[in-house]
Amino acid sequence: MLLPIALVQCTVVGLLGLVGLLWLRQQEGIETPWEFIAIFAVALLGSAGALFMRLEVPDSWPGRIAHFFRGLSESWHKLSRNKSLLWRLVGLQFISVLARAIRLQVAFWSLGLETNFVGVLIASMLADLAFFFSVTPG
After folding, report:
1. I want to staple 17 with a disulfide (CB 3.0 to 4.6 A). Which of 40, 54, 62, 74 is the partner?
2. What is the chain written as a DSSP string?
3. Do 9 and 128 meet the contact criterion of CB atoms below 8 Å apart?
4. pLDDT in tens, 65-103
């Protein structure tokens, strides 16, 4: 069940990241690096695509990759049947992303630095995505 929850988080981060970059461009007049747009778009499309992709992996297929996709498909199927739980999860992910950005904003304030909250939000979400793509042993 953990993998679908992580994909929901990645979807929320991708969506909020694109909205934040659009806000910075339209409201603040700050140019948006195309690399950031690409990162958030890939996060949104990749994670949402992985969530809604129906993979029926036969039980006869061996190996870690088959086990991974089988577990993802089964977990998402269970989670998606409970719409109330799914919407609460999405809401909690939005709150979690905003809470981490507020924590980072407070850290900047404690150092006496005035920063744009949307910029801090984008930096926080880029750090979230870096966590997903970091190399870990095992």
Report:
1. 40
2. -HHHHHHHHHHHHHHHHHHHHHHHHHHS-PPPPHHHHHHHHHHHHHHHHHHH------TT--SHHHHHHHHHHHHHHHHHH-HHHHHHHHHHHHHHHHHHHHHHHHHHHHTT----HHHHHHHHHHHHHHHHT-----
3. yes
4. 777 777 777 777 777 777 788 889 889 999 999 999 999
Q: For the range 71-80, what are the long-range contacts, defined as Cβ-Cβ under 8 Å and sequence gap of 24 or more?
A: 71/3, 72/3, 72/4, 75/1, 75/2, 75/3, 75/4, 76/4, 76/7, 76/51, 78/1, 79/1, 79/4, 79/5
Span 41-59, pLDDT tens digits: 999 998 888 777 766 766 7
